[in-house]
Amino acid sequence: xxxxxxxxxxxxxxxxxxxxxxxxxxxxxxxxxxxxxxxxxxxxxxxxxxxxxxxxxxxxxxxxxxxxxxxxxxxxxxxxxxxxxxxxxxxxxxxxxxxxxxxxxxxxxxxxxxxxxxxxxxxxxxxxxxxxxxxxxxxxxxxxxxxxxxxxxxxxxxxxxxxxxxxxxxxxxxxxxxxxxxxxxxxxxxxxxxxxxxxxxxxxxxxxxxxxxxxxxxxxxxxxxxxxxxxxxxxxxxxxxxxxxxxxxxxxxxxxxxxxxxxxxxxxxxxxxxxxxxxxxxxxxxxxxxxxxxxxxxxxxxxxxxxxxxxxxxxxxxxxxxxxxxxxxxxxxxxxxxxxxxxxxxxxxxxxxxxxxxxxxxxxxxxxxxxxxxxxxxxxxxxxxxxxxxxxxxxxxxxxxxxxxxxxxxxxxxxxxxxxxxxxxxxxxxxxxxxxxxxxxxxxxxxxxxxxxxxxxxxxxxxxxxxxxxxxxxxxxxxxxxxxxxxxxxxxxxxxxxxxxxxxxxxxxxxxxxxxxxxxxxxxxxxxxxxxxxxxxxxxxxxxxxxxxxxxxxxxxxxxxxxxxx
Length: 566
Known about the structure:
Blueprint: E1 3-6, H1 12-19, E2 35-37, H2 45-55, H3 68-84, E3 87-88, E4 95-106, E5 111-114, E6 119-122, E7 128-131, E8 138-148, E9 154-155, E10 160-161, E11 172-176, H4 202-211, E12 216-220, H5 223-226, H6 230-236, E13 240-244, E14 256-260, H7 262-271, H8 276-283, E15 291-317, E16 322-332, E17 337-338, E18 348-349, H9 352-372, E19 377-384, H10 392-399, E20 408-413, E21 425-428, H11 436-447, E22 450-453, H12 467-472, E23 477-481, H13 490-504, H14 520-538, H15 552-560
Parallel strand pairs: 8-11, 11-12, 12-14, 16-19, 16-20, 20-23, 21-22
Antiparallel strand pairs: 1-2, 3-15, 4-13, 4-15, 5-6, 5-15, 7-14, 8-15, 9-10, 15-19, 17-18, 21-23
Helix pairs in contact: 2-9, 3-9, 9-14, 11-14
């Protein structure tokens, strides 16, 4: 039975309470939202078990894109989507081809900084790392002028532009990691206090540098604001780097994107007569002006380039009244394939939790929605490839959408259901960003649970999973993890289970299926996702990002140009 008795006014207090914990809350002038009540879904725990077991078996070899494991995964998902009652999501096809490019740098020259008389020379790996996004056999940065641009942010909606009054065309910009108010004790500030915004992520900083015409971009690594040590940077930015093929009209790209150790940056700035701490302090203040350092940077390296193709798997349950309006569910099907062996010699990273569980959830939700009958809007179930390589399948879909993004109402991303038993709460990553919080709060109220905000907002986890690719294009997306306050054992037990997984199984060969798992908590979370998806699909509203959110302008522009969607 569908009811339309719930509007935003009935949920506003809960939504704002949640929003105050992380990121920016919506204003009190938010429009009334149509949030229908929905009946619980008929969700199959056997489906969750069977698909998780299959996907994480050794036969699937860790589900690395471009391998036998991909072939088996795509075949299984196609079969189960069709059996669930879905239709092919890409015309007559169940898949979207995702062309990928893998670039492996080699023969790196040192990074050399000169004032024309004295050279500072830094070794690749230990002192700096760099890659190119260009499909060129060789890469060169030759005597490129260095400019310190603070946090490298251009955010008109926040009255902030670190590039104002400076031309960095052909130059190399030096950028601080995170955003200006990351040291705040609370969540108040131009950039949401200690909660990282998209402007604090390295992805944004490189993209903005390229838009400004820079030839190179070097981020200053600092462990606390980055939330990871230099060894993570060194390992992640050396070896093969994969990207979606960019086609004939690629976005602007620098020649070199890289990182430098903090002590290296300090030495470079000192050679320019500047102090890193003083400039960092100045860069936190509105109106900061970029500083020409009077130095030049040079480096070079060669690239091995490999092209290959992977697949996103797409199914759709067409809507009964508004089939051209779409609610999307995403999960990544891939994992790491063969990896560093465990002490017992096991070298298959099976990825049972990450993310066979989320992939199985797509099928279980599809079955339940099909049993309930088509909702008003269409439901899309998208299993994306190459998340572990940098959200590549999601980025490709978001840049080449099968269903128009201005007709996509919003969505839910599911990445790793930690099997921990039932909880009293759920962990909301990035609360307060959009009006989807109202749908989440309604579903939580129906399930008798409460939201817990992300405990580490400064780490920017909202920008690290597949939903982010859609958010960048303006589509409101929810990202909700399992709860921390377990029915049995409370927060202490929840933390112990999470810590054990991160320490002993995450991205390792021991993330394996266990026949003794207690699935009750997973099914509890799955019911929540069912309610949210069904509410969005039965609604007539078009939820937006909250005022001031970094993705609001993109959505508003998309909606303004649409005649059929938002």
